[in-house]
Prior knowledge:
This protein is an alpha/beta fold. 32% of the residues lie in helices and 21% in strands. The chain has nine helices and twelve strands. The chain has a six-stranded mixed sheet with strand order 1-12-2-3-4-5, covered by helices on one side. A hairpin with a 2-residue loop joins strand 6 and strand 7. Helix 1 runs antiparallel to helix 2 (17-47). The chain is elongated. The termini are far apart.
Amino acid sequence: xxxxxxxxxxxxxxxxxxxxxxxxxxxxxxxxxxxxxxxxxxxxxxxxxxxxxxxxxxxxxxxxxxxxxxxxxxxxxxxxxxxxxxxxxxxxxxxxxxxxxxxxxxxxxxxxxxxxxxxxxxxxxxxxxxxxxxxxxxxxxxxxxxxxxxxxxxxxxxxxxxxxxxxxxxxxxxxxxxxxxxxxxxxxxxxxxxxxxxxxxxxxxxxxxxxxxxxxxxxxxxxxxxxxxxxxxxxxxxxxxxxxxxxxxxxxxxxxxxxxxxxxxxxxxxxxxxxxxxxxxxxxxx
Length: 286
């Protein structure tokens, strides 16, 4: 579209045929170089371990400051494997978080094929441990087997339940894909049952459009799934589907949501104008 608009403008300029042909040739070559450069940079962005992104979030009734390391959408599989996971763990440990959350789409392969790809996650260091909810891709490859694999790593799975830790209620729901597969369906009432009403609640939900279905408020929802669009301009379609793309959103007077762009990629190993991230959420009292 951009190419056609510029070409249309140039075609209306008053140049002689020779000059017009030369300008078109230069423009075509420049445009091809630009596209190739974007594609190569996109491959580099996808295959390079993500950078730390610091986000400050104010939460009412928080008892003390809390540092949460968040990763989503790693998609361990054909391209990204054990070395990539080890780099993520290294960066997270350097940040010295109070707790770590993994918000879905950690793997993109069946449990029996994972092997030792996830073993570096055993080395994650934080004060209160590592917590996880599945994403839609775990369902595509057999969510029950994958959950067993992840549980064996010492990671706590928050499937429609919550735990009181670090002065907060940390809750999680299964993914919306569970409704389609009729297995491990998300249930917010179960996830929030028994929570301490005097403490702020943080909810892990892989797909941000789950927020649209919520009949109860929490203080902060942590999501992934969108990859921030991964390849521009597909971000427009993602925004239309999910209602959220990337970053911190104010849902209402009580509830906020942070949507991560993800640490890995899905499909082609390309990220164009959508950098990956390890999100470090610095929570403080409002």
